[in-house]
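Morning!

This is the sequence you dropped in the shared folder:
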Amino acid sequence: MFTIKIDKTFLQIIKLFYQVGIWQSSKESRFRETGRKLFYAFFGALFPIFLATNAFLCTDRNESIFSANGAIIVSVLYVKLLYLLFKKQEILGFFNDQSVVHSIENREIYEKTSKTIRKFMSFVRPYCLAFFITAFLLVLIELPIFSARKGLPAFISLSWNDSEIIYWLAYFYVTFSIFMCISINLFTPFIWYIMLNYSIEYELLGHKCRRLGAGKKTVETRVKKQKDFGLTQRSMFAESLIVLIKAHRSLAGTIERFRSCFSTLFMGQITTSGIGICVSVYNLAFASKESIVQREMNLVLLLYGIFDILFVMYLANDITLASDRLSYCLFESNWTEQTESCKKYVLIMGEVLKQPQRLMILIYPMNLETFMTHVQHFEKFSVKKAIERKLLIKLVAFVWGFQKYATLGKTQRP
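The structure's back. Tokens below.
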């Protein structure tokens, strides 16, 4: 029996959550634990409020839209913070579930599964590291000794402020908030890892379905040699099928509880990511070309908004596809040589497996089709506005050129 345990990267992230105080150990008093939760909940809510207020006070439209886009993205991170604060037991319960910590008998399947998880972790580690490096650079570049613009970290403008005290208070507050947001965003790979393992568990169930009825000769030999061995090949097939039915029902129930627990977060991600993508595209079309750094930040926010929802939709789609293959795997087993009652069980189970596991948010299934439809609707609006803007500029340029030509013609007439 081979066991795939939780990767050390996630254990280090859990340790970080305890060190920064987002999670508390069981040894701490109830009063202190509640106090920390309320502090982080209140402090985390101030950052999106600050960005939204700054968007309202900024005189430059580009800076205002940039701050508004930041407020939208940070609001999703605040929802993730609330989950970390108040859903700790549920998160750890899903993370340590048997659907995530796999026990595999076949060595070939074990190596294949391990390879899949290693590929996933080879992406997660640079992803987490890149965020911390980016946060450090965003704070460092905007230090007064390196920049004469006197802006805040992450290129947030504070053009409406003239007070030196308010500037430094805002600078230290934004710096601390950025590092806190980076720490909160480490929760995102948790969700990805859990969803990845659900699809892997369905693939493992599919492999077990194919193996039903295998090893007939071995069992018949044991029956002949052992008189007291009461289980025949057919009875073992029926028992194995019952075990698989229970495992499938347990996994489906776990995924449904997972969906129910994180439905608010997924809905927030879908909504705000779409709005963020729309604002970023709109900003890239309208932003001044002189502000190169702001355009780069808009591009970064656009990519973050796309990938934040894309990975969730991709992994949810993978769960659906993996569960949809179970019916095919079941009929690849040695079911035709079983008793009539076993055949009936297989046919009934095959009908049940024809309905794949779907993660639904309200009336929308979480899959790549929904993602593409959702993004296209927002991008159509942004592209339409950008085209209207460009056509308006060309029209104004044409009118201005025509008037200039007419004026020049009048001055040159005899």
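Headline: The chain has 13 helices and four strands.

More detail when I'm at my desk.
O.
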